[in-house]
Structures are given as C-alpha cells and as structure tokens.
Request: fold
Amino acid sequence: MTTPADAPHPRAVAFDVDGTLVDTNYLHAVTWWEALRQAGHHVAMTDVHRTIGMPSGGLLDRLLGPDRDRDEDDALSAAHKTLYATWFDRLPAHNGAAALLRALADRDWRVVLATSAQGSELSALRRALDADDAIRAATSADDVEAGKPAPDPVEQALAEADVPPARALFVGDTVWDVKAARAAGVDCVALLCGGIGRAELEEAGAVAVYRDPADLLASLDDSPFARLDGS
Reply:
C-alpha cells in the first residue's frame, strides 16, 4: 500500500511519565529518602528530589558518591520499590494528562510512553492515567542499556513509533529528560509539575515550558506541536 504524496508524514510524541503525567516525583523522593534512612544514610530530601528521573545507579552515584559500597545498591533499590509500591492504588494523574494524550492521538500523533518504570509499577502508572486507548507503545528500563540523561529511552521510544527525531517531540519534567531528548536530537517540551523550576529547564535546553498537562493542552495550537501539525 502506498502513501499519497500529500498525506501528512507520521509524527510522534514521547512522554516521560513520573512527574510529567502522573504526580509521583515527591512520592519517589520520600520513599528513596526512607530507603536510604533505613540503611543508615542521611540525605536531604531536596537532594533526593533533584535526582528523581535518573536510573537508580545514577541516583545513588549523585546522592552517595561513586566510591560508595555498591554491594548495597540492590538492597536500596529493592527497599525503595517496596515502599513506593504501597502507593500503587493511589497514584494521581496530573490535571489534563489523559485528555492531552487523547487530543494528540486524535491529531494523529503517535503517542509513546518512555519511562524507567517496569512491571507492576508501569501497570500502576497506566491505570492512573487511564488512557491506554491513546497510547501506541510504552518503553521501560528493560528496553534500553542506559537511562536518562542518556538518549537511549528517547531513541527507543522513537523506534517504537517508527518516526525520526525531526518528526518528534519529547515531553518531560526534569533536567534529565531535557538532556536525554537533546542527546537524541529531539526538542523537549518541559512541564513544571515535577517540581523543577522554569529557569533550570530552559537552561538545560527545553524549547517551551508549561505548568502541567492541562496548560499544555490549552496551548497546543501555539506550542511546538503546532510546528509539526499537518505537515
């Protein structure tokens, strides 16, 4: 089957999930803080929050240093996962998250989730979103060799969508999201709902910043998405 010459070329949008679509960043911060506290590590919660969005190895590198006892990493990660899992039935989607995904799917954007969440955690996030009808695919840490700020999660999401970087956007809420998108050659639209300030996101390279999914939805026609709409 051939594609008509005047048909729009496929476009994709990859979304980070934690902090971007579902309001979980502070839950992650608290449960990492508690996991570290139980193991005898006293780390300021603000420092924990600023590492959210990185894979556990990178997070622990920044919080405990690269010279730490790495034999402890698996136990720390497992403790965090166990503590965080107690919230699975109460994870709140951000205002407008599902509506944004559906609006983009209705405009023929290929919507892909790019998250480090796996297994039951990813399932809980998708239940919180309740927008599977708008989601083309989801990638997790199982699908990539390195997490953000490496480009691997973004590149894998675009592979799932079968769309090149020039025809895609990435939406995230952390500096690590912005850096991963830039490394993959994709413009990043950033949201403030994960708790990171506008100046930091713009300094990292975000092409536009909005308060939350609802704000982005209301601004779609004047956003970076409009640049690729209908083309």
